[in-house]
## 1
Amino acid sequence: MAAMLNNSLFARLSRIPPAYFVFVALLLVLWIARPHMLNTNIMGIFIRQVVPLGILVLGQLLVMRVNSIDLSGGSVIILVNYLISSSFFHDASLVTYFVLAVASGVGIGLINGYMVGIRRVSAVIATLAMNIIVIGAVEFLASGKPPGAVPKFLNEIYNSKLWTIPTPIVFWIVLSLMMWVLLKRFVFGRNVMSVGENPTAARFSGVPVERTVILAHALAGLMAGIAAFVQTSSLVMGSVRIGLDLPILAVAATILGGVVFGKGEGGVWGPFFGVLSFALLFVVMTTFNIDEPGKLVAQGAIILLAAIFYGLKTAGSK
Amino acid sequence: MKPAEASERLKTSFGSLLSGRNSRQGRWFLALIILFLIAGLLSVYTEQFLSTGNLLNLIAQAMPLIITAIGMMVVVLVGGLDLSVGSVISFTTAILALGAPAYISIPGVFVLAALIGLTNGLVVTRLNVHPIIATLAMQFIILGFARILRPVSGGDIPDIVIASVNGAFLGVPLPVFWGIFTFVIAWKLIHGSRFGLHLFAIGGGRASGAEDAAHNFGVADKRNVLLAYVTCSCFAALAGVFLAGRIVSGDPNVGLNFELDAITAVAIGGTQLSGGVGSLHGTIIGALVMALLANGMNLANISPFVQTAIKGGILLLVVGLQSRKKMGL
């Protein structure tokens, strides 16, 4: 094992996020097994399905870079879904709905940030607890039933196209570009990097560590809110069961995309391709008739393998 | 000794017992007081609470959580966390419901659980993966297998498992013996063996930021951490066997959110999640507090959705009150 790790070719290859390899491999599998699936229309539909996941990942990569994690995305999706489709805000405008989604996301994100940054609670426990609190509350309000219909105009926007590309995909790419600029060009991006690399060193260099962590969690909440908005638009009827597996998929896609806990490494585009890999994975699984339990196993295995890959890499560089 | 000095000494020793600040065993005394408070409230508000029938029923209800929480505590002592226990419980009930003879399926579930724990431990210690990520991934893999084996609840549980949970011996219901058996084994393991001592040593070093402290004093840290994960999974399988006997079927969703309940119980019992501080009696008290709360909320007719939310709130509260140096995961 050690010889393999010291090999320069392996070292060079291991610097490329596994998402790219997985993406190419799955593309090859599809190309060999089902070549007729590979056209822009079908791919557009499948990629459009993972847009909520893709937006959630934009937040997840941010918190994972500051050595934290956010598993409360599912609750934001259910909360926003409930708020939009129930009779609470009947016939409101597009802007109201969007503000509602963003506000609930940022609210939950800020609480997460406070628990992780100030109270120093383990991020997994804090966000998982937050998750079951909000889900419990929403299910109580909805008494376990689907709350109601999603406004039609949201559906129309979701199904529309901009220059032959589905609008949600364009929206996702624009958001990814914005996140990329935020991380590359802004002081906040530098802070995220230094806190992720070494919190103690960051503190002594005058980086506001707590503020960065809280802000990262608030932004992750914001992204979860936007993801929830897109997810809700894709539905005709509201549901209190949808999107519960998205946070864990987001973690998987982010790890696959080369973001490592406690390391400033990893950009926006690795996770982006991580999400695309998941889109292809769903296509492959559907065409090979693998159902839900098999998908769970595959998701877990992907997280584990990607984490092992990085574990070995960091062990080799010590 | 002057009376004033004696009372002062009594006060400080009581204070330190209450806060658990100077103890390896943590804040368990406070949990005990909370347990008695809740029990007192319940017995005032409802007449049947203190009846022998209800108390025995309560023990049977709390047993799976007690067993799981003890296993979880072993991992928490070394500063780890095992999020896969809920799935292991579901998986165990699914395997028992396959209809295989008891002399194959019962040892089988423990062998499988040990293998799951071994995988968790190996991935964490040898492959350098963060325990939360490793066990989170494992949670999904095992849940997937449980759902492949048994998509919906049903199946035949071996008669001996059902009898061992629902029967009585000399007039005493068998869950009481399950409790005694678990307690004796766990006490030996955690507070009465070299393995247990080493768990405290490893976790204590890690909690204070000295990752290799125990290793440098000659403790085989990787091997002991590995064994801690195996222990945790085996306890989860034991809880799964008990639950299978209680619900008399295999259910892929029976262990849902069990890991969070177990972590809450462990944290209520005064075990520090950063490792090195904790006690068996504290964890049992914590699990009993959880069981009493569930019992009380059921008596008060609170919706199960709200109950979940309240449990989440308690978890957030108890963990938020613990002090920790590290930030993040």
## 2
Amino acid sequence: MAAVKNFADKISFEQIKVELLNTAYGNDRTLIARLDPRTLFIWYMLFGIAPWFIYSKTILAGLLLFVIATTIMTRVSRLVIFILILGLLGESGYMLIAALFFGGNLSIVVPLLMLTMKLSVISLASMTTFCSMSPERLGEGLMSIGVPGQVSFSISYGYRMLPNLFDEYNHIFMSYRLRGKSPEKHGIFYWRSAAYFVRLAMKSFYPLLLSMAKRARTTVEALETKGGAYAFSTPQVKKLKLAKLKIGRNDYLFLLLSLIYLVFIFIIGHYIQL
Amino acid sequence: MNELIRTEQVTFHYPGEDAAVLKKINFTIEKGEFLAVIGSNGSGKSTLCKLFNGLIPHFYSGDFEGTVTVCGQDTRTSSVAKLSCHVGYVFQDFENQLVQARVLDDVSFAPLNYGKADYLQRGRRALKIVGLDHLEDEFVWQLSGGQKHLLALAGCLAMDPDIIVIDEPTAQLDPYHAKEIYDVLKTLNEQFGKTIITIEHHTEFIAEYCKNVLLLNQGAIIWKKTVREALAEVDLLTELNIYPPQVAQAACRLSAGEPVPVTLDEGIRFFGEKAMQHADDVRSEHKPSAEEPIVTFEDINFSYKRMDRTRVQILKNINLMLYKSEQVAVVGNNGAGKSTLMRLITGVKKPDSGILRIGSLSVTATHPERIADQVAYIYQNPEEMFIDDSVRKDIAFYPRERKIAGYEAKIDEILDQFHLVDLQDKDSRLMSGGQQRRASLAIGAAMEPSVILLDEPTANLDMATRKHLTQFIVKLKERIDLVMIATHDMQLVSEWATRVIVLHHGQIIFDGRKEELFANPALMDKAGLFPPQIVKLSLALGVKPVAYSVDSFVRRFRKEGSKWQPSKISQTK
């Protein structure tokens, strides 16, 4: 139980906030992060969607190696990787146990491995694409492919407010604790304490919603005074906003190398079957 | 020709409210003015300022009559976006007007939206004016409160407006940062020819920086005067719950008919010519009690993690013992660690190292819920304490959870004591600032703690609310063992505290009597503290002992000729 307590102490609100912000903004100086968002969208079409239609284990393994490399290059935060591994293991593990329980045998492992590999490739490709783009870049990228300006503003604004949301939620949660009463006894497996905290965690959202609504009022007014509505409806402004997006040599090189690698593993997959 | 703003017979009703917030408003503002808009809470100051960029009538539905002309445009036919090119607006909750993650993106957001190709240069130029140019790549949430306010101002400057409206800069900032903002505003006014309109409670800032004053009461304009004439109306201002500068208050009570001084320098000249009765230095002895301390800090350290995973030290080697019936004020700039120091006592944050005890209870090993049996903490922002949907339920939360017998009667009593009976079924979040503050204190009172921690209790209050609150704080002493207040309000410190702790960059640089603190300008300067004007005046005039309130200063003169008795205030303990 001490280990659980120790772990619980480590994942504080502060910790989660830092990790989330790092996921969004912390790695925008890497090689991949400096590519044009549109390049990354094209690349994602190749590596994020193609695996659904590939059944050769050799090719999938080759893709997996490649996206592992790109994920390392983008310096994704540890928290996200941890959650991904937890998710993959949980998903596959549960299906394996379910299959064995309902009369399957170990032959289930091979198809499960295939599924896990596909999911991993897609997840890692998504991480490479979306974790290396800061919310602003993502917004600009989306705008450049015709998504309305309001959407891209909402993305960057949402992330801007994220730390505030976290702090405020933390304050409200603590308000409950500073006046509330925790269970006298922890109960078996700490269930009483766990139930108490889960209840507080849910209750804390209601005051948060109300105070956010109040904040939003100022933001909407401020946005108006900063010409937000004018910008959304004026094509010249959109052009100005997108002027800094530029597909350069690195972009072509990155796409070309990815393509060459794809062709290469498809050829190998044709001759060698794992 | 130089007229920038003209209002004619402007009346405005919010929907669903009987009384108009603005009643037949007529006035003009000329180019180059530095105007303070004053009035008690709810007099319509913010509403008035929202006329200038067209938020009223375009954004607030309600009945609007009359005309407002801004830079030659009728606000009814113009738009908020167009008017905002001429009028920059810094909101009171300025944090919510910063909409981008990085400083440079945020400051150049408006010029980019208006399609100005040189938006980055504009942003950089604005940052340079407010002195944030070294932070252009920083994230907004890493900035301090003062820096965020400067950034909000820079965001307006990037559009190079003719008029800048600032809603209560001193409400959210400590005096040091408020002064910083006013110095920037002064430069903008004098060197760049901008017209500045500020909503301000703090008349000492008005006396030092503004040129004209517009007084509002219940939605009507009483007058618009020059600063000198305006602040000399001590009686009228006091009646409308506005504190005139302390030098003016003192002068007004001591001499009728003479022109009243409004700034410290004038005060020194004014009183310097008059004879002043001196007395022996009376010290309010701060003697360490022989009793066991109520709260003990031993080598406490606290740090938090920044986004780049480096740690920032907030408190360094804090050693502190607090005794029964002390009235402790914790002072220091924003970010000095005041709130953290108090929150550690509640147990919601645990120190990195060191020992922290309340009596014999170890805070580090105890849940906040247990500590709450003894300690009540009142947040700086009351809204963060409201967790239920009515005032009454919020106050009753603590006794209800603990199933304290007969608590309902107790709640009735507290509601009455804090004048909240009529408001008890209202949602606390929808009340005014002063009402919220009262409710937050009532929540603390219902906990019947032995230690109460108040974080900035007097911030952002008008005179009536502040007076009421100070009475409450003084009364606390009777029932509560230890009262501790973190505050910027040096007037409160000088009138109430028996022990002052000065924090600076997470360390205690002073712990002792306020007399010693106020007599040490170098230390005050280092910690970014400003003594109350009356204390500065007494020091400059060589008054001994120093007067800590206008009352005691005035009494000093009245006693002239008779045998002088040390005043009550100067021997608080």
